[in-house]
């Protein structure tokens, strides 16, 4: 009986060990993640490395071609590295797919991203490679001795842009391109209304002209364009709109450590103003109406605010357009900074893609990713890509190159490579780099950004639906928006590395594992007790 | 020795478990929300809804359920509206940004994400595009082709596409699968817009050349300008009586595993084809094709 008991117990333990052990380790692999990346001494030239690059283009075939060419050129330099390109057209999809692939350990190697998103990725241990040690590596770091192309040095990356990639004291990305927002203006119509564009555009000016443009004739046509449709002022990214308005007013949005300040009285004031002009029809948004460029180019908009990286869609002669030629109207396009509350101290957002590297088990694979990431900052790629839109290269090396300076100097030479609106948008950012800002990055900052835009979208929708916008409405709006984006569930200090979260019920596998362990221990203890009792009785 | 082995095994389990029990490193689920990053002036031509509102590839997993049968029996002929429900005529007459209540029948599901569904629907009189309608994943599964639903939302227009947004719905008794209405003869005519969002057919059209990124003549493009890759929307030109139109295989509606996606990739310039799909609008007619037959 005793032997049988031992056998059973041993068998139980063996079975539990064989099943639960791997289960536990598998669980660990998923939850604990990879070990920290350590820089190899040398890059292995004997092995072959296949890396994936998730890139974002602006639905622009030239940008796609530049990515493809960059890969071809890079693979010539490093024949043992193969780069597989996967293209996206918006950041949100990249973000969602990365999140999905984290759970299956199938993240890309190199990924175009936003710092806000990286903050979320950092919730996983060692998921994103901190680049500090890579930057400084003598051989393979920025401009390192063993790098096979003319990579920029750390000093040659525009400091403001590089700082945007600093999260919790570590660099988790390299900037790839930078843009801001610009106001693309139908100057012809503004002047036809009797106004002269000021040196610096102000919110008051834009609202006033927009309302003046709403006058109609007896047949219900707008006087300014003779059409039935006119939305004088359209904003593409309402999250940016709210963020920049608050910044310009020196009002709260969030703190660096993740305190949410958005839901306050300054925001309400802004929303009341926006509601007023949404109600009159003088203002709308991309989400509610459509692309600002479509309205601008058909003479149905006077002030279109969009990214400088959307400049090739703006204006009568825009090289890219969704509008049939017969609908495009002739007008003079002016490119200005976004409206300001304080024209003496203009402030505008800095945005644009950055590149992060996901950690892998093989450090050589990570190093291959790093080399490719550096290659994206080489002059060949930087200048070629920046020329496709109103982007600015992120290195002084590229910005100051003769090739790039020549490009800028040829503004308006034709309506393709040297399209004047595009180059003016680029110059706008180059001239205002010191006036740009970014919002604090923390775990949840991406949701807060969405919430900022949603406040505007909902307010404009509501007034269009003839709902009353008052204090009660605002209170409800705040409450609903906080709930929608689960902002009430964020930690008070939401830095990527901070705090634990309520993760809900344990998964079934964990319950089974823990139960098995408890059973095993119970059996062991029982066995020990029984043995001791027997010994005493002997 | 046996005791030692037993204890060792147990200890191994405990160590493994303790290892897992540390700080939970998984990415918080609530952060994985669809996130529409603003910025970068992407004008994602003719995929405005996806670009605008971040529908995701969740849709790719679902079956694309465009109608396959001819006028499917039943309640289509006696499609009497319930009390408080608009007729299609009343819906058309309703102003934009007003609340509308319609009873309609699911014709195809385009996508589901974060409890929002985008659906093509139709009653016997006309089509309704239901954009980002509040819908649990469980309910989404119930929305088989033909399912009757009562939808309450707001009428809106986005780049010419009239749709119902911010909607809720409830499933009702009844079923109707629309027959594809042949609108070939009115392509290019003003009256075509009266059929917006309906399931329609185009017959005897000719595949025309598009130009790819290298300037070559090709039968289709990934994305409107050839900037995409497999899995992205397909764009192709077709002509009739000297006029050329751009049609789309919308990748959320029909992903790269569907027959129509594969069929369009096999097209050759000059092919004569019949097509079916939904009469979507983006700055003009932009049909979302669900089937192609090469003659």
The tally of domains of chain A stands at 3
Count of helical regions of chain B = 6
| Unreliably modeled segments of chain B | 16-39, 44-65, 68-73
Q: Which topology of the largest domain in chain B does CATH recognise?
A: OB fold (Dihydrolipoamide Acetyltransferase, E2P)
Q: Bin the strand percentage of chain A.
A: 5-15%
SS content category of chain B: alpha+beta
Kindly describe this structure.
Chain B: Residues 52-77 have a biased composition (Acidic residues). Chain B: Residues 29-82 are annotated as: Disordered. Chain B: Residues 1-20 form the signal peptide. The complex is a heterodimer of chains A (538) and B (295). With 538 residues, chain A is an alpha/beta fold. Chain A folds into three domains: 2-32 and 504-537; 49-179 and 352-400, Periplasmic binding protein-like II (D-Maltodextrin-Binding Protein, domain 2), CATH 3.40.190.10; 181-350 and 434-489, Periplasmic binding protein-like II (D-Maltodextrin-Binding Protein, domain 2). In chain A, 44% of the residues lie in helices and 11% in strands. Chain A contains 19 helices and 16 strands. Chain A has helices at residues 2-32, 61-77, 91-102, 115-121, 132-136, 159-163, 187-192, 203-212, 238-248, 265-280, 292-297, 363-375, 379-386, 396-399, 402-409, 420-431, 445-464, 471-484, 508-537; strands at 49-56, 81-88, 110-113, 166-167, 170-171, 174-175, 177-178, 181-186, 233-235, 283-285, 303-307, 333-337, 348-349, 354-357, 392-393, 436-437. Chain A has a five-stranded mixed beta sheet. In chain A, helix 2 (61-77) packs antiparallel against helix 13 and helix 9 (238-248) packs across helix 17. The longest helix of chain A has 31 residues, at 2-32. In chain A, 50% of the residues are buried. Chain B is globular, with a radius of gyration of 23 Å. Chain B has two domains: 48-175, OB fold (Dihydrolipoamide Acetyltransferase, E2P), CATH 2.40.50.140; 181-294, Nucleic acid-binding proteins (OB fold (Dihydrolipoamide Acetyltransferase, E2P), Beta Barrel), CATH 2.40.50. Chain B has 295 residues and is of the alpha+beta class. In chain B, strands 6, 7, 10, 11, 12, 13 and 14 form a seven-stranded mixed beta sheet that branches. In chain B, strands 3-2-1-4-5 form a five-stranded antiparallel beta sheet. In chain B, strands 8-9 form a two-stranded antiparallel sheet. The model of chain B is unreliable at 16-39, 44-65 and 68-73 (pLDDT under 50). The N and C termini of chain B lie far apart (79 Å). Chain B has six helices and 14 strands. Chains A and B meet through helix 1, helix 2, strand 2, helix 3 and helix 4 of A and helix 1, helix 2 and strand 4 of B.
């Amino acid at each position: 009986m005793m032997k049988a008991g031992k056998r059973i117990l041993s068998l139980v333990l063996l079975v539990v060990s064989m099943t639960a052990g791997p289960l536990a380790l598998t669980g660990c692999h998923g939850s604990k993640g990879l070990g920290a990346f350590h820089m190899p001494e040398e890059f292995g030239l004997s092995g072959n490395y296949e890396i994936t690059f998730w890139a974002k283009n602006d639905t622009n075939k030239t940008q796609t071609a530049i990515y493809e060419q960059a890969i071809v050129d890079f693979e010539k330099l490093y024949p043992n590295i193969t780069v597989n390109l996967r293209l996206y057209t918006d950041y949100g999809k990249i973000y969602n797919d990365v999140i999905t692939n984290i759970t299956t350990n199938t993240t890309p190697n190199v990924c175009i991203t936003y710092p806000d998103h990286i903050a979320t990725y950092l919730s996983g241990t060692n998921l994103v490679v901190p680049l500090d040690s890579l930057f400084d590596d003598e051989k393979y770091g920025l401009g390192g001795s063993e790098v096979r192309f003319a990579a920029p040095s750390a000093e040659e990356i525009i400091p403001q842009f590089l700082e945007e990639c600093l999260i919790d004291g570590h660099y988790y990305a390299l900037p790839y391109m930078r843009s801001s927002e610009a106001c693309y203006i139908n100057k012809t119509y503004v002047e036809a209304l009797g106004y002269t564009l000021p040196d610096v555009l102000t919110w008051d000016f834009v609202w006033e002209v927009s309302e003046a443009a709403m006058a109609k004739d007896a047949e219900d046509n707008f006087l300014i364009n003779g059409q039935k449709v006119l939305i004088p002022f359209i904003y593409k990214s309402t999250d940016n709109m709210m963020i920049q308005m608050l910044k310009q007013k020196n009002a709260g949005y969030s703190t660096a450590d993740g305190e949410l300040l958005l839901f306050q009285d300054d925001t309400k004031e802004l929303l009341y103003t926006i509601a007023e002009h949404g109600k009159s029809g003088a203002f709308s948004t991309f989400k509610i109406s459509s692309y600002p460029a479509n309205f601008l180019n058909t003479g149905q908009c006077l002030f279109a605010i969009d990214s400088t990286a959307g400049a090739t869609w703006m204006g009568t002669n825009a090289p890219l357009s969704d509008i049939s030629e017969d609908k495009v109207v002739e007008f003079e396009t002016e490119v200005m900074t976004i409206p300001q509350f304080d024209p003496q101290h203009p402030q505008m957002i800095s945005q644009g893609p950055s590149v992060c590297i996901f950690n892998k088990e093989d450090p050589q694979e990570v190093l291959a990713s790093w080399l490719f990431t550096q290659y994206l900052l080489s002059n060949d790629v930087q200048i070629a890509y920046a020329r496709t839109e109103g982007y600015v290269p992120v290195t002084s090396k590229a910005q100051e190159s003769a090739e790039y300076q020549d490009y800028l100097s040829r503004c308006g030479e034709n309506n393709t490579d040297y399209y004047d609106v595009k180059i003016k948008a680029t110059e706008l950012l180059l001239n205002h780099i010191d006036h740009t800002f970014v919002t604090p990055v923390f775990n949840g900052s991406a949701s807060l950004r969405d919430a900022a835009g949603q406040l505007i979208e909902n307010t404009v929708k509501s007034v269009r639906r003839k709902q009353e916008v008052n204090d009660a409405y605002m209170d409800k709006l705040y409450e609903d928006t906080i709930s929608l984006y689960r902002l009430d569930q964020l930690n008070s200090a939401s830095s990527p590395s901070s705090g634990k979260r309520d993760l809900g019920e344990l998964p079934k596998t964990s319950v089974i594992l823990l139960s098995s362990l408890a059973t095993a221990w119970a059996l062991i203890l029982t066995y020990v007790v029984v043995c001791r009792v027997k010994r005493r009785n002997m | 020795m046996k005791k030692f082995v037993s204890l060792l095994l147990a200890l191994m389990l405990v160590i493994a478990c303790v290892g897992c029990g540390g700080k939970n490193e998984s990415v918080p689920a609530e952060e994985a929300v669809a996130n529409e990053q603003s910025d970068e002036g992407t004008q994602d031509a003719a995929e405005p809804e996806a670009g605008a509102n971040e529908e995701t590839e969740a849709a790719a997993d679902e079956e694309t359920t465009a109608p396959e049968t001819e006028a499917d029996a039943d309640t289509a002929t006696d499609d009497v509206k319930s009390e408080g429900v608009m007729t299609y005529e009343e819906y058309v007459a309703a102003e934009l940004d007003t609340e509308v209540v319609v009873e309609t029948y699911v014709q195809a599901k385009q996508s589901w994400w974060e409890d929002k569904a985008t659906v093509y629907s139709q009653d016997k009189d006309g089509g309704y595009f239901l954009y980002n309608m509040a819908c649990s994943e469980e309910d989404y599964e119930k929305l088989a082709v033909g399912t009757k639903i009562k939808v309450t939302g707001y009428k809106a227009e986005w780049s010419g596409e009239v749709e119902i947004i911010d909607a809720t719905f409830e499933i009702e008794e009844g079923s109707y699968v629309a027959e594809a209405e042949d609108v070939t003869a009115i392509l290019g005519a003003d009256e075509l817009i009266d059929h917006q969002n309906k399931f329609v057919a185009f017959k005897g059209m000719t595949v025309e050349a598009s130009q790819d990124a290298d300037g070559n003549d090709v039968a289709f493009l990934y994305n409107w300008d050839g900037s995409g890759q497999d899995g992205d929307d397909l764009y192709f030109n077709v002509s009739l009586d000297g006029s050329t139109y751009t049609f789309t295989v919308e990748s959320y509606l029909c992903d790269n595993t569907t027959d129509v996606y594969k069929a369009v990739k096999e097209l050759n310039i000059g092919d004569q084809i019949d097509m079916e799909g939904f009469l979507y609008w983006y700055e003009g007619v932009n049909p979302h094709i669900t089937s192609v037959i090469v003659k």
